[in-house]
């Protein structure tokens, strides 16, 4: 029996923890700020005005008046707004540092001589760190050489109810991910990553446009999950009373577009895979996929190298040597190496492995190396063993060419090598960044491959594809020989910045 009047937990005897003290302090500050908001409203002052007489921005003023000497003043009057990230109040003069969204800062000086007793008193009473404020006044350089606004008028632009974190302490990773808005306020790297991603996206589109590709959009909700080997998210449509899948890849719809005559097509898309999450995998992620009629996997390798190198130059301002988050440099320049999967596996393992190698030999090698393979086929053993022996050795950008047939059901067989398909994976800094095929366009062979995948699915493989009759119907109207590629956008940012995937996604899914 429990005593319902007893406390839920016994006191530790050591007093409240640091986290409990911080939470109590935040709660107290929140109430103080709510009281200030109420007083502002009672006094007829907007705490969140709809409009302010803004004439310029902090970055624009910094650029225009960068030449001012220490102590130099102008008669130029501006109106601008920013978030207060530093504040110091003295008797007749208050100082505040205002920060714009891109991190640019300027000092605001609120003096008794310029604003009068009542306005100065209101500033001291109502303004807190984290508030957005509007200031109006002359542009000057202070006696310490700080570019400043000598304020003659000010207003609250948005009252912060919760305090900012301590700007002198680095945010923990969980806080950065869960409260990205705080991360963007306090950390330069967070803002730079957002700008880098925007530059990469613009660069991708520019490179594709330069090669006459058209951008399209394909469905995220699909009646069949296909285009990749992955476990899907499943949902239900009330309107259609049917089970639907969140897209794991746009491939099968983009190929329909090629059948329809859009010879060069690409999509920057959101995909969803109900699998593990770690430093290089996210259940929701961005990809770019592209297909080119009368192309092949070798041409797609050339295109992918150009896409990545142009993206790097867009982020760095023209260099192919990128500086990673840990301060090291990484060279994305030159023509990238191309290695054969079977040949490199044979060399690394000390055993000759070919498409004809019996499953029993592969199983024995895997057991000797401690490599576990689920739903084992020849191809899965080859790929898992290759990963075991080679993936961590590929630091420089490298295309790994020519994969097993049974793990690549949408890929054309190699023109000269039985049992191998024309597929590559691109590895950068040891992780997979992109993949490409010479596409399988024979509808009869494609049906056979789908049937084999369906057998694997019936045997319990959750990643195997199903027979997609609508896609096969499209192929039977004839798809020209084509090359196709797919690349993770989040991973492209990882390659260029050296950050983990949760840092390259603005708002990643967290538990």
TrEMBL record:
The keyword Transmembrane helix does not apply. Mg(2+) 1 binds at residues 425, 432. It catalyses: tRNA(Lys) + L-lysine + ATP = L-lysyl-tRNA(Lys) + AMP + diphosphate. Binds 3 Mg(2+) ions per subunit. InterPro entries: Aa-tRNA-synt_II, aa-tRNA-synth_II, aa-tRNA-synth_II/BPL/LPL, Lys-tRNA-ligase_II, Lys-tRNA-ligase_II_N, Lys-tRNA-synth_II_C, NA-bd_OB-fold, NA-bd_OB_tRNA. One of its GO terms (molecular function) is lysine-tRNA ligase activity. Mg(2+) 2 binds at residue 432. It is an enzyme of class 6 (ligase). Residues 1-28 are annotated as: Disordered. Residues 197-508 form the Aminoacyl-transfer RNA synthetases class-II family profile domain. PROSITE patterns: AA_TRNA_LIGASE_II. Its cofactor is Mg(2+). Its main location: cytoplasm. Keywords: Aminoacyl-tRNA synthetase, ATP-binding, Cytoplasm, Ligase, Magnesium, Metal-binding, Nucleotide-binding, Protein biosynthesis. It is found in: Cytoplasm. Belongs to the class-II aminoacyl-tRNA synthetase family. Homodimer. This is Lysine--tRNA ligase. It comes from Curtobacterium caseinilyticum.
